Sequence to fold (185 residues):
Amino acid sequence: MTDESVGGGEYGSSNGEINGEQHPIVEAGKEAGQSVGVLTERATDLGFQQADKARDKAAEGLGQVTDSIRRVSQDMEGDQPAIANVVTTAADQADRIAEYLRNTDARQILSTVEDVARRQPLVFLGGAFVLGLAASRLIKAAGGSAQGQSAQNPGQQSGLGQQWSSGADYQATGPGGGIDRNPGI
Fold:
């Protein structure tokens, strides 16, 4: 039995060949797969570059916060030494985290997080929950100041800087919207 009788004609081979030559669709599929692989690798590298920039900014910001915490601790030493000690310990921890961020790239951080998630999934989920709560509080706090400003102005600002109203000044024009269609009847 030949390939033609089993497979049905000149396309009988299972490796995508036609009469000994590579089928054009198979070639195109291989090239597309290679292109996707290259694009995925580039996107991953760009993502890690952005993550490294954000990591550097976070380390810098955390370093500034650590300096502020240390100043507060020094101010409190005379009046409340026990609280100053706790604040100093918090500053030390923040300094360790900042140092870790400065010395570790995004790929290593991701690997560490993955390892913790595998070894201690409940701790990982708890940490993710706490981070989510903290993020929601920050977002809520940031949105609260904008809402406080808009409460002073009766017109609200859209994203384009235009004011809009709640609609209390307008009448509906649709069916039954308050327009008398038959005046005088």
About this structure: The helical segments are 3-7, 24-76, 81-103, 106-119, 121-152. Residues 22-104 form one domain.
